[in-house]
Structures are given as C-alpha cells and as structure tokens.
C-alpha cells in the first residue's frame, strides 16, 4: 500500500502521546504529509477519535503541481545539466512552500498543522510569525526565524550528530533533540533537554549552520533571502549538555520563484552486497563483480535486451571511495576481507530480475570466500 505520507509520524510520534498533546495544549507542525497530506491528516483524525480527544487539524495544500504538467512540458523545460527533455513519466511534482500558510493555520486556531512539500525551516518560522506577528517585510526577523529552523531541521545533527570531533560527544544512544527559545527580536537560545546524550557547543552548531547552505550570503527561501555571513554563536555556561545564543542573521526580499522537486520513473535497479573473505579479497571481489556483469550481459544479448543504463562496482575495504588517493597496503595482498557493492540500472524490469537471480550462483561458481549475500536475493 502506497500511503504517500510518513506513517511513523502518525503511529510513533503522535499516537502514543495524543492525550498529553491535547491536555498540555501543545501545537504540532509537521511536513510528514509528503505527497498526500490529506490522507496523513485523516489518519491523525482517526487517532484523535480513538483517544477521544478533540483536535483541530489543518492541512496545507497547493504544493502539488501535477495539474501543471502539460503547461510545463509545453514551455520546453529541459534539464540544465544534460539538456534532456522534460520526462514523459512524471510521477510527482511539488513546490517548496514557505511559512505563511503555517502561520495562517495557527492564526485560525489549528492544534496540528500538516504540510506537503515545504522548506524545512518554514516549520519553525511559521509559529514564530504567528506568535510575534512578524510582517512580510521584516526581513531580518524572517531570516532569524529561518536560521532557527535551519539549525534544528536535521534533529540531532546540531546536538552532536555527525560532528567532526565525534569522540567528544557522549551517549549517542540517548541523544537529545534541540530546543529553540526565540525572542520577538530574533535572538534565540539553542539547548537540549537535561539528562540526554549529545553535546551543544560552538562547533556542533557552526557545522550545522553551514550544512547544505550554498552561498551563505544568499540562502534562498520562499519568505526571505538570508545572509548568515555575520551570524555569531556564543556558548552559554551553566546549561546541562550545553547551550548557545545565536544572533546576527540578516535578510532581504525573496525572489519571485519557488523551487520545485519532481520525480519520474526512469527504469529499475537492484543492489547486491556480498562479503568476501580470505587472501586477495579485493581482487576476488572485483573479478566476481565483473564476471556477474559479463554473464548477465551474455544473457541480455541472447534475449535481445539492451545493456545496463548504469552500473556501480565498488569493493569496500579497497578504499575505492578515495579514488586515486586510496592507500594501498604494504604487502601487496590487501585486506583479508572486503565487501562487493554491485548496483545496476536498466529500463526493463525483466533484465534486473535476471541480474538478481545470478548473484547467488557466484557463491559456488566463482571465487572461494563469498560468505553471504547481505539481505538475501537483491530486490528489484
């Protein structure tokens, strides 16, 4: 069953706590609606009904552009990088909306706001506009609220997740998620709940600040163009697990454009992952992967199928990831274990099914030491 929204949001994040959310008057905003926000809201309504609580659920729609498909195709839109024509098999097309519909829903009394495609930071900016009455032209404030959203949009990434100095971050198993306390002037304090793992420091927050930013002086959002180049992050003593004060975001008017995300069907793929043990594991892995491809290509030519449209062979353990900068071992033998990562892409499903079938026979028909297929037969 294709739901089109994030079911965990309903079953794991909301259902167990729905009575507390109602009792404490907590207002919840989420973009878990995906490409089917109305169905997500209906599932939440069901949860509320079962728990016998009355919650006003608002849905932000308008991000779905599928009705515009033919107009966009007629406009002659092409892929900037490859020059490819607008794809025939578009499955979804959604525009990244901003914070205003969220603040409007809150103004109208919504307890829960579910959006479809939306910029991640807008989920934080929306309630700040609602709470403080920030105007459309108060660009420094809108940039500050967007920065608050940008810093917490990846959850535990700003509380020590994937931090360069990861060895200094305690208790990953119980990592705390961030809390933002924002003033109407746009300054805010970033902290995390007491007695949780992770770490908030200048470094953890600064790394999240520059994450996925592009030009820090022109970070483009639907509500504001942000300049984060003068932002200051100051550690505040006396907080369990650390806290920082953030200020100095500047803003200017947004562009007249929205960003659009589209998906289309481009064929089928499968991925085989096979550990290889014993001496010369890397050489065995490479030859095994190449032989599987050779064998399937032979079958394709007999059936009149075209070749794969893309292939990825990587032998993990050989430092393939580093390309020409890989460090080769001194004895020339290399490690005694490696992992074949072999992925293929083809326009026809049947071709990828043949590939999927031909992995297991390598276990008895090729190199010694192929010790298993991770996850079983590759899924098409």
UniProtKB/TrEMBL annotation:
Residues covered by the Acyclic terpene utilisation N-terminal domain: 3-372
UniProt-listed InterPro entries: AtuA_N (IPR010839)
PANTHER family to which the protein is assigned, alphabetical: PTHR47708, SI:CH73-132F6.5
Protein's UniProt name: Acyclic terpene utilisation N-terminal domain-containing protein
Organism per entry: Nipponia nippon (Crested ibis)
């Amino acid at each position: 069953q294709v739901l089109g929204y994030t079911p965990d949001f309903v079953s794991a994040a909301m259902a167990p706590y729905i009575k507390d959310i109602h009792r404490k008057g907590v207002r919840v905003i989420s973009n878990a609606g995906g490409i089917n926000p109305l169905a997500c809201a209906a599932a939440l309504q069901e949860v509320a009904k079962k728990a016998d609580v009355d919650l006003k659920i608002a849905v932000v729609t308008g991000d779905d552009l599928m009705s515009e498909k033919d107009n966009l195709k007629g406009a002659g839109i092409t892929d900037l990088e490859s020059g490819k024509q607008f794809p025939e098999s578009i499955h979804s097309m959604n525009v990244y909306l901003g914070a205003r519909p969220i603040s409007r829903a809150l103004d109208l009394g919504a307890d829960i706001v579910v959006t479809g495609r939306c910029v991640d930071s807008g989920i934080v900016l929306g309630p700040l506009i609602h709470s403080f009455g920030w105007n459309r032209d108060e660009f420094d404030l809108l940039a500050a609220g967007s920065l608050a959203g940008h810093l917490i949009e990846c959850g535990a990434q700003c509380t020590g997740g994937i931090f360069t100095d990861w060895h200094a971050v305690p208790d990953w198993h119980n990592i705390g998620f961030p809390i933002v306390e924002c003033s109407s002037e746009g300054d805010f304090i970033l902290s995390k709940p007491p007695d949780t793992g992770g770490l908030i420091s200048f470094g953890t927050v600064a790394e999240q600040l520059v994450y996925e930013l592009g030009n820090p002086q022109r970070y483009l959002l639907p509500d504001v163009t942000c300049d984060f180049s003068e932002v200051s992050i100051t550690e505040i003593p006396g907080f369990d697990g650390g806290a920082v004060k953030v200020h100095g975001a500047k803003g200017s008017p947004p562009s007249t454009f929205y960003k659009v995300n589209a998906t289309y069907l481009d064929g089928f793929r499968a991925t085989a992952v096979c550990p290889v043990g014993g001496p010369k594991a890397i050489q065995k892995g490479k030859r095994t992967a190449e032989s599987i491809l050779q064998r399937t290509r032979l079958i394709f030519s007999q059936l009149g199928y075209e070749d794969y449209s893309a292939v990825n062979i990587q032998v993990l353990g050989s430092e393939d990831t580093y390309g020409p900068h890989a460090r080769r071992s001194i004895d020339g033998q290399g490690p005694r274990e490696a992992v074949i990562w072999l992925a293929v892409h083809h326009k026809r499903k049947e071709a990828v099914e043949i590939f999927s079938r031909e992995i297991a026979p390598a276990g008895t028909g090729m190199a010694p030491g192929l010790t298993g297929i991770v996850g079983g037969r590759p899924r098409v």
